[in-house]
Write a structure and sequence with these properties.
The chain has helices at residues 2-9, 15-25, 28-46, 56-68, 71-75, 77-86, 246-249, 263-274, 298-308, and strands spanning 103-108, 111-117, 124-127, 133-136, 141-145, 153-164, 173-176, 180-184, 188-193, 199-206, 209-213, 220-223, 227-232, 237-242, 256-262, 277-280, 288-293, 311-316, 319-324. It has 326 residues and is of the alpha+beta class.
Length: 326
């Protein structure tokens, strides 16, 4: 299995081998073994010199990396060239508490950026050059320039992140990456900005933040601790309400709170948590759930859901289909 895991990480495995590995990973006791092999593989990869012409396996890995990276990168041939020769430097991130690594990309003498990314199904924790701390949820990443903390504190976010910002009155901290921006001086807050989600959400735990847009008129609002600001991308409206902040920020501690969510929404959260794709039948999408996930396996969670509601979770290739159980 060790050989199969390394083939998967190197992008060499076949579809059948990937399915076999997925089935093996479903047993909770195997996930720790997978992480051990993954660390060993990363150490080996980072210690080798990357030749000018990458072999086929590395090309496959680059393709996977590019698909998860900022859309703008795909449009720039300069960016693509950098990724061709820097693939071996790509950092894979682990659960919070382990320092995240970063990839520095040099485009010219004046423009350098760092991209920090959380691996699918993992949480990354990193300290920025200004001593601010960031937790990145599964599949999320941030990008900032080489003059961060000297002339600006601008961070582009794609996905979800919890920020603990170091106070600096001279340099406000700015979160961009979508039509809605978040500006702060020093505070603790959560931003959910997945491109595929209809809602852009900012939850404030401590301090004060300003939510605004340079594109949409009328979007300019300061929110207070305990408030959630939601921007609806379809109707271009901003709504602010009081919330239980823990429900929106506990993911950084490995706790996932499901509170009065539909099965369709739950499937999205489980996808991000366990890196598992779901298909939900139309007749069960609206079923409601409330529970908390700490260290439970996906198997245990699905069994619980099957117990409390009339559903059945069936593995179909790489996808779990959730359907009505008659």
């Amino acid at each position: 299995m060790k050989k199969l895991i390394k083939k998967y990480l190197s992008g060499k495995g076949s579809d059948e081998e990937h399915r076999d590995l997925l089935g093996w990973m479903r047993e909770g006791r195997h996930r720790e073994k997978f992480q051990d092999v993954k660390k060993e593989w990363e150490s080996e990869a980072l210690s080798e010199d990357m030749p000018d012409q990458s072999n086929d396996a590395w090309n496959i890995m680059q393709k996977v990396i590019l698909e998860d990276t900022q859309r703008e990168l795909r449009k720039s041939t300069r960016y693509l060239k950098v990724f061709q020769y820097a693939a071996v430097l790509v950092a894979f991130f682990f659960v919070a508490g382990i320092s995240a690594k970063m990839l520095g990309l040099q485009f010219n003498s004046n423009h350098q950026y760092s991209i920090i990314k959380a691996d699918a199904g993992q949480i990354a924790n990193v300290v920025l050059p200004d001593s601010s701390e960031v937790w990145l949820n599964s599949g999320s990443y941030i990008k900032y320039s080489n003059d961060f903390a000297s002339s600006n504190r601008n961070v582009e976010l794609y996905g979800e992140a919890y920020f603990r910002v170091k106070k600096n009155k001279k340099l406000p901290f700015l979160v961009t990456g979508s039509p809605i921006h978040v500006k702060v001086l020093g505070t603790k807050f959560n931003v959910s900005a997945y491109p595929e989600d209809n809602l852009f959400k900012v939850t404030l735990e401590e301090g004060s933040v300003k939510v605004y847009s340079e594109i949409y008129d009328g979007i300019d609002k300061e929110i207070k601790p305990g408030e959630l600001a939601s921007f609806n991308k379809k109707n271009k409206t901003l709504f602010v309400k009081d919330v239980n902040v823990d429900l929106h920020t506990s993911w950084k501690d490995g706790i996932l709170n499901i509170y009065n969510l539909s099965l369709e929404e739950v499937a999205v959260k489980l996808d991000k948590r366990y890196n598992q794709k779901f298909e939900v039948d139309e007749d069960v999408k609206k079923l409601q759930y409330t529970y908390t996930i700490k260290n439970e396996s996906l198997f245990d969670i699905l069994k619980l859901m099957e117990t409390i509601t009339p559903i059945e979770a069936v593995q179909e290739g790489d996808v779990i289909r959730i359907k009505k159980n008659n």
